[in-house]
Amino acid sequence: MLKRVCTLIIRRGLLTFQNDGAFRVHPSVSHALAENRPVVALESTIITHGMPYPHNLSTAREVEAIVRAQDATPATVGVIEGKVHIGLSTEELDFLARFDGSVKVSRRDLPYVVSQGLSGGTTVSATMIAAQRVGIPVFVTGGIGGVHRDGENSLDISADLTELGRTPVVVVSAGVKSILDIGRTLEFLETQGVCVATYGPSKDFPAFFSPLSGFTSPYQVSDPDKAAQLIESALSLGLHSGVLIAVPIPQEYAAAGQQIERAIQTALAETNARGITGKDVTPNILQRVNELTQGKSLQANIALIHNNAKVGSQIAGVLSKRVKKRKSSIASYHPAKQCETNIVVVGGINVDFIAKGKTKTLQFGQTNPGTFCQSYGGVGRNIAECLSRLGHQPMFISVTGADSQSDAVFNYCKHMDTSGVTRLEGQSTATYCAVITENGELSLGLGDMDIHQLITEQYVSQFEKQLLSSTLVCLDGNIPASTIRYVCSIAKQHNINVWYEPTDSKKACKPFLSDAWKSLSYASPNLAELCTMNKTLGLQTPKVLPNSLEQVLSLAVALSRPLLEHLHCLVVTLGENGVVVCGEHHVGSVNLKPRIEKKTRKLCALHYPALSVAAHKNVSGAGDSLAGALMAGIIQGRDTDACVRMGLLAARLSLASPHPIAPMLSTQSVEPDRIQNHSWPKPTFMWID
């Protein structure tokens, strides 16, 4: 499924396939998205069902020109021969404008239209789906659908409203057409959790042809800055619902509103008499209203669409600048200049739910008092985030589902390079639920992580160029053994340093099922995972792990010895007992610098005690924080003491945070020389025979 010949489009961590599957993205749109320039989505039912030819075509071209005049890129969405096009060429616009067999495509219609290779115009709901798929936050239309009159009996409610309730896209429109029940529409939007605001000096909610509907919006935004501020807040909260910005029709066209309203009432009566229902109601009424007003309604319709396009493009422009500024401020939070180190991390990405008990022990089979929080984890994601917060910009390769959980993940990971993460239709984003005790120890963990098996050799091979140019590649144990073998084979051929983070004792065996492990340079197991590695190689391991520190250290060193025949260095984590670093002896310490070539070495080990933590809030990311900070120190050319201390400080921050990687992690927070009043204990040196 993933072995495709395609062009990749990257947008703030969202990777989709161009010219593949059901979606087609126009090059102008993909380039703008990749460069974080403002893009405005536009629907196409106005072309196929809203206006007669040639007014529909000229209006579509004029609207796109208005968007471009505001330094934004238009992305008109339409379906052509079963493919959803996000951005249309001149020829494609002309085709939709002239084509008599166009289907009106809402969310409900998309599967059938795509499967049958049909063509049509996308409604608000279908356009929102397409915009959200490729990361376009702002969508401009004329007016949205709503609750139809007598909707309390007929239950005729537009899919636009439910789409606004579940798709995080901003819809800029002239409110709701007066042929609908505006009051009930606003009530339904409230039920769906949609934030509604009128644009301009008033809170009056507009009724398409009229700036006044007799109803009031919950909120009001006066200008593009205020609108962009509202939108940014809505998107950052991860609410998974849209925002409706209602823009009143320009005042010079509002004067004809009363005449148009009378024509609407006449058209409504005629439509009812003719028995017209469903999705055919609106286009029939609009056509009849245009006839009754001798074209004035069409002129007003075009004027309000032009105005919406201008306002929406201005909002998109300000929003784009705010996003860039926020990203810049995130970068400035880490004063170290982003290093061109070409680190690649391949691994899992999870949504974590942490349930923490309020007692030292948990009683199974009964309700225990506790607290709950949601965070974002996955070993690969954790390590990539740690490196990102420490001044590097690793490329993170992973997969998620195309679901609301992934929306939240990408939003949270905006400071990271997630250009190697793709959303897969029909899959669920990996989810992990941990039940921990009062002191932060794991009592029970449940994971739905089947999607990690789709980080296949074929998928990762798309990034072979980045792998070949990397300084360091980090693999986590969640990915398939075949993918690990593939990366290790590349590493062997091109002398690339690979770091393996085993994830857990069951997955620690994966590289050791073949000779792939001989191509690893670093590994960071705990003692149980180190036992699994040795056992997989057929080596003797103890059935029960020792308790005393002396015995633990002795076992860690003994189990590391056979692996160091090929591995450059082992970092064995010992929980509250700290960490043991094993590898080549160099000037009284362990040489952590990336290996250039394999050679006979004298081996030694260093034991570093753990740092004290006042209260353990979460233990799920301490090992990943340690590993990520160690990698950062190694890449920066730090000595062994500095690298390990950076790792211990990062682990301590993680333990004291509800998040696997502490949001306060930065280059300053793990700088050993900047930590005041901290006496670093001298590590214990041991020779390895």
Keywords:
689 residues; alpha/beta; Indigoidine synthase fold; UDP-N-acetylmuramoyl-L-alanine:D-glutamate ligase; 3 domains; eleven-stranded mixed β-sheet; 28 strands; 20% strand; elongated
Main beta sheet: strand number and arrangement? Answer: 11 strands, mixed
Give the end-to-end Cα distance, rounded to a whole number of Å. Answer: 49 Å
Low-confidence stretches: 1-20, 327-340
The number of distinct β-strands equals 28
- What is the radius of gyration? 29 Å
- By CATH's scheme, which homologous superfamily of the largest domain applies? Ribokinase
Shape: elongated
Quick check: average pLDDT?
86
**CATH C-level category of the largest domain:** Alpha Beta
Could you characterize what this model shows?
This protein is α/β, with parallel strands linked by helices and 689 residues long. It folds into three domains: 1-136, Indigoidine synthase domain (Indigoidine synthase fold, 3-Layer(aba) Sandwich), CATH 3.40.1790; 138-324, 3-Layer(aba) Sandwich (Indigoidine synthase fold), CATH 3.40.1790; 336-688, UDP-N-acetylmuramoyl-L-alanine:D-glutamate ligase. Strands 3, 4, 5, 6, 7, 8, 9, 10, 11, 12 and 13 form an eleven-stranded mixed sheet that branches. β5 and β6 form a beta hairpin. α3 runs parallel beside α14, α10 (224-236) crosses α14 (296-333) and α22 (622-635) runs antiparallel to α23 (640-655). It is elongated. The model is unreliable at 1-20 and 327-340 (pLDDT under 50).
